[in-house]
C-alpha cells in the first residue's frame, strides 16, 4: 500500500484564510543574472513564490522610475515566470526598480512586497554610441604573432559624480582599468559571436572607480577569436579582421544632472604592453620587466612611449547587449601532488581535468624565465601533448627581479589536469600556484547522487565537462586546436545541460548566431560561428543530428525554461531546416543521399574514420528528419500556427511511414541490426505499436550479447537507456549503465577520468592513447546519459514547459538502493529522494515547487497527485535486482 505520511501542503497558510501570503523572491529580468545594461526595452519579469505556499491567484507590480512610482493594481494571473513588462518601455540608460507582491491560496490580503530589484537599460539606440574602435597604429605583420597593445586616455573630472557607466567591447579581447583598478571580473570579453553581425558589449558600474581631478582609463587588448590563429590544421589568422581595437564609452553623470562622455577616439594613445604574445591555442608570454603597475593611472611612468591610436570603423547597429552571464573565474584548485622532476622542473597534478589557467607567485633573479606546459593526461609519466595537436598551450613569465611577482595569463585558456613547470627559481610549494577554473558563469540548477560511487563520479564528470566546454559558446573540447561550437554535440546534450545549469540565455544567444550562419537554402553549419575548416567540413553540407539543433534545441529550452518567445524567435530557423530536409528527401520522404556522419564515434568505427559506424547513416538521417518535423509541428502548435502544425504533422507521419517501409521489417527487426537503429526507432516513435515489443527485445538481446558494453556513438548513446526502459528492459539499461569494461560509461571512471572522454577508449586498457587524430579527454556529448539519470534513476520528469507540471517517477534497479535528485526549476526547487530498504520498502521524499503541480508514480502503484510542498511517501516494491 502507498501511504502519504505528511499532510497535503496545498493548504491556506497558518493564521486562517485571510492571512497574507509570504514574501515572494526578488524579481529577475529575462535570463540574466542581473539587470544592469539590459538590451531589451520591455524586459520580462520572473519571481519565485516561497516554498510551501499555495498557487498564485494574482500579483501586483510596482515600478519606481527615479522616484515616480507606478503600480499596476491587482492582475489576476497564476504566472510568475517571464511575465510581460507592465509599463512604458525603458529608454537607453534608464534605471527602474521593480517590486512584486502576490495573492496566493485563500489569502484575502496580498503578501509583503518583494525586495526591490533594479533593471537598467544599456544603449538601446545605435545613435547612443559615440565610441569608435581604436588600437595600435604601428606596422604589423598580419601573418605572424603580434605583440598586443594597451590603450589609454587621461581626463579630468571637475564636478562630483553621482553615477558612471562604462559601455565597452573590442575587436579581439579586452580587460579595462580605471585609475589602476580592474573594471569587472569577467574573462575573455566580449566573448565569441558572429562578429560582423553581432558584437556584444557589456555595461559596468564604475562610479566607485572615479575621483575628482585627473583620471585615467585604459585597456589591455588581446587577439582572441577575432584575429588570433584559430581552427584546424594550424588555424587561420585574421578571421574577422586584422585590427585589435577597443570600443569604449564612459558616461559620467554629475550631481547636477550634467553628463560627461569619454569615448574612444583619436585622442587616445597606444603602446605595447608586457604581454609579448597571446593566443587561445598558443598560450601567453609575459615579461614582468616591462610591466608598470601604474600604467592605467595618472602617475604612469612611461607615458612618453605612448603613441596616437589608429581609428577604425564599426557599425553601432551591430553592437548588442548580453543575453546571458559572462565567462568568469568560478573556482580555485590547489595542486593535489607536486613532483620534482629536475632542476627547477616540477610536475603538478591538480586531481581534476579542468579549463582555466594557472596563477603563480614567483621570486627570482631578473631574466628568469618560467615555462608552464599543460596537458590532460600523462604518457609514460610525462604530459601527453599529442592530443593537443597544434595548440601548444604554453605560458611563459620572465621575472623582473624586483621581488615576489604574482601573475596569471589574461587572454588564453587551457584544458588540463597536469602542468609542467620549468625554470622555477628555488623550491615550488603548493602556496605558489593555483589552478583557476573559468567558464560561463551560469547558475547551477541540477544535482544528482546515488548509492553507487562510480555513477556519482560519472555524473560529476558530466558536470565538469559541461563547465569546461560552456565558455561563451558550447564547444566540443577545450584543449586542442578546435574548441568550436559543434551543433550536433549540443543537440544531444541540451537536455542534460538545461537540467544542470541555467543555460537559457547563453544558448539563446548562440542559437541566434546559428540562425545568422544558416545558409539561404536552410543548411545548418556543422559548427557555429563558422570559420575556415578542414576539407571534410568545406563546403558546408547539411547533416542529420547536427543540423537538427535548429528544431530540437529550441524545443528543449522551451520545455525547460518556459520561454515561448525563445521558441518563436528560432522557429523560422527550424522551419527552414525541415523544409530543406523535405527537398532533399523528395517525394519518397527518405533522406538517403549526401554526406552524413551517421552514428559518429560508434566504438566499432576505426580510429581514423569515426563516421564509419555500423548503423546505416541514411537510416539515421531519415529518423532525424521525422523527429525534427514532429517537433516543428509541436512548436507551431505552441505558437498558435495551426496551418504549420497540421502541415508538419502530416509531413512527419509521411516520413515515419517511409522509414518503416525502408528500414523496419514486418517483425519489428530493423535493416540495420544495431543498438543505435533500435534506439532511434523506439525513442523517436518511428515503429508501429505492434513492432515495439519485438524491437525492444532485440535491442536488449544485442546489449546482452555484447556483454552490456556500449555499442553506440553520438546518436545512439543519449537514447539507448530510454529505449530499453520504455520497452520493459530497465534491468538491461542498468547493466549497461554499470558496466566497467571498455567501452562503457564507467570504464573511464575506473581509469581515473574526471571528465567525459570524446572516445570510449581515449585511453586504452593497456595505458596507451587512442591513435586517432581526435582524442579529447573533455568532451560532453557522450555524457548525455545524465539526462536519463535525472529522469529515471533520480525520477524527476518535467512534463510541462518550465517544469510547471512534474512527474516524480523513480525507477530503482541495478542494485542501486538510493538516489537524491534536485532541480531548481524556474518556479522553485523540485527534489526527490528515494531509498529502498532491505525489506523491500521504498521511502520517497518529494518536493513540489510553489506554483507547480506534481504527480508521484511509484513502482507498481497508481499515480498520486501532489500539491506544492514537501511530502513523504512509502510503498512496498520488489527488491533491487540486476540483469
Describe this entry's structure for a reader:
This protein is α+β, with helices and mostly antiparallel strands and 883 residues long. Among the domains are: 18-121, Immunoglobulins (Immunoglobulin-like, Sandwich); 126-273 and 292-324, Jelly Rolls, CATH 2.60.120; 329-434, Jelly Rolls (Sandwich), CATH 2.60.120.260; 805-876, Sandwich (Maltose phosphorylase, domain 3), CATH 2.60.420.10. Helix content is 21%, strand content 28%. It has 14 helices and 47 strands. The strands form 10 sheets. Strands 15, 22, 23, 27, 28, 29, 30, 33, 34, 35 and 36 form an 11-stranded mixed beta sheet that branches. Strand 45 (853-856) and strand 46 form a beta hairpin. Helix 4 (504-517) packs antiparallel against helix 5, helix 5 (549-561) runs antiparallel to helix 6 and helix 6 (564-585) crosses helix 7. The longest helix is centred in the middle third of the chain and has 22 residues, at 564-585. 54% of the residues are buried.
The biggest beta sheet reads: 11 strands, mixed
Give unreliable regions as ranges: 1-18, 879-883
User: CATH architecture of the domain at 126-273 and 292-324, please?
Assistant: Sandwich
CATH superfamily of the domain at 126-273 and 292-324: Galactose-binding domain-like
Q: Provide the structure class.
A: alpha+beta
Question: How much helix is in the residues?
Answer: 10-25%
- The percentage of residues in β strands lies in 25-35%
Overall pLDDT level: 94
Name of the CATH first level of the domain at 126-273 and 292-324:
Mainly Beta
Rg calculated over all Cα atoms:
28 Å
CATH topology of the domain at 126-273 and 292-324: Jelly Rolls
Shape: globular
Distance N terminus to C terminus?
26 Å
Number of helices: 14
DSSP, total strands: 47
